[in-house]
Amino acid sequence: MEGFCFSLLIDFQFPPLFMEPVVLKRPEHNVSRRNISSAAIKVLYRLKDEGYTSYIAGGAVRDLLLDRHPKDFDVVTNATPEQIRKMFRNCRLIGRRFRLAHILFRGEIIETATFRAPVPEDETIHSEKKFSTGKDGMVMRDNVFGTPEEDALRRDFTINALFYNIVDFSIIDYAGGLEDLKKKIIRVIGDPDKRFTEDPVRMIRAVRFAGTLGFEIEEQAYQSICRNKDKLELAAPSRMYEEVQKLFFCGHAKAVFQWLEKSDLLHPMFHDFSHWIEEDKIRHDWVIQTLEQMDRWRKANLPVHPTLLFALIFGEYHEFLAKELIKSGTSPHDATREAVHQHLQGMCKNVRVPKQAIYQVADIMSNQLRFEQTKGRRPQRFLQHKGFLDAFLYFKLSSKAHNRNKELLTYWIDLRKK
Ligand code: ATP
Ligand code: MG
């Protein structure tokens, strides 16, 4: 009797230490090993045979359940990075604070991580000194590694916290992700305000997944994004550049952009540009047309250079800025290059576009002037130029979008065929 009361008291005062996950057995789901990369399967079995727990985690499980092709397969295990390294000859450890194993196969890397606990509240990313480093460079703090449940619950959204267990081919769900996949909902794990403050990039991940998967963002999470959008300015600019590329290369750039607009995340990302497109519907339509084109290219599996994408999205804005400079006496060529540099360098405090990419965008834009030169040997020389194709794609798209340069466009299309 006494024992019974005592256990009641414990349950009442503390959250349960271990939560039973929902487990979907193999006949109850559609994930087949045939759709998992053979490299990932090898890693999973090797770890299992050595006596470790090993799961596929994150986006791959989500995509497999949705019958989509995962971009990559991430593995989680209770083996430590050192143990993983000893098990695989083709392995290298990366990362300083939390070490990850990259297991290399021909044409594929299987990222393999040890189950990870959440970062304690009082230990922000800046308090590295609280983590001691062992002689092999491994972070020794005991609460860095965690249980499968902790690993699931530190992830961003419920649909990204699912595991696939190689032992019995089951799906393990600690966060309610299976239910949310069915309902098509992006739901933050834990308190959205807290999770978005911890890592503001999660806000743009939410809109990327909503746009890509055609899901809704759960109401509280959506309200939280609207409240916390300005925190995006605190995110590391280099990480933002990576994320921005993912936003526009996901094959659903238009849908993602509409989410960015709706949630007003566009302002903290692209401050001046977002105000500029709001002023005029034609400007806005250009961006939408560009994104539709991007999505068509992605669907056709055409490789599109990130700099062409940046040139296209911001093209009209750059042309507008250049016109202002031309009015004050700068030559068209210099004005175009200066406009690109001015804008993209200014953007770097939020989204750090690499210097080389800025130069390439400036090349695409300044090369537009060369399409007007059809006399003598210049066209042939331009055709051989390494920057021709990107410049041409820009020229073609912008000419069609604005119904201009018809004859010039035909001239260049014919010349390319010769
Ligand atoms: P994609 O298909 O774009 O690769 P993904 O869900 O696999 O989507 P990744 O960036 O590859 O995204 O990350 C892998 C997993 O790591 C995610 O599914 C999620 O569980 C976790 N994760 C990634 N970024 C964060 C973050 N900022 N906060 C918490 N968990 C994250
Ligand atoms: Mg991924």
What labels describe this entry?
418 residues; alpha+beta; Beta Polymerase, domain 2; cca-adding enzyme, domain 2; 3 domains; eight-stranded mixed beta sheet; 10 strands; binds adenosine-5'-triphosphate; binds magnesium ion
Describe the structure.
This protein is an alpha+beta fold and 418 residues long. The protein folds into 3 domains: 1-183, Beta Polymerase, domain 2 (2-Layer Sandwich); 184-277, cca-adding enzyme, domain 2, CATH 1.10.3090; 305-417, cca-adding enzyme, domain 2, CATH 1.10.3090. Helices cover 52% and strands 10% of the residues. It has helices at residues 2-13, 38-49, 59-65, 81-87, 148-153, 177-183, 192-198, 201-213, 219-228, 237-249, 253-262, 266-269, 271-278, 281-299, 306-327, 332-347, 355-367, 378-384, 388-401, 406-417, and strands at residues 22-24, 54-57, 74-77, 91-94, 100-105, 108-114, 162-165, 170-173, 185-186, 216-217. The strands form 2 sheets. The chain has an 8-stranded mixed beta sheet. The chain has a two-stranded parallel ribbon with strand order 9-10. Helix 7 packs across helix 9 and helix 15 (306-327) packs across helix 17 (355-367). It is elongated and about 75 Å long. Mean pLDDT is 89; it is low at 1-16 and 124-143. Adenosine-5'-triphosphate (ATP) binds next to helix 8.
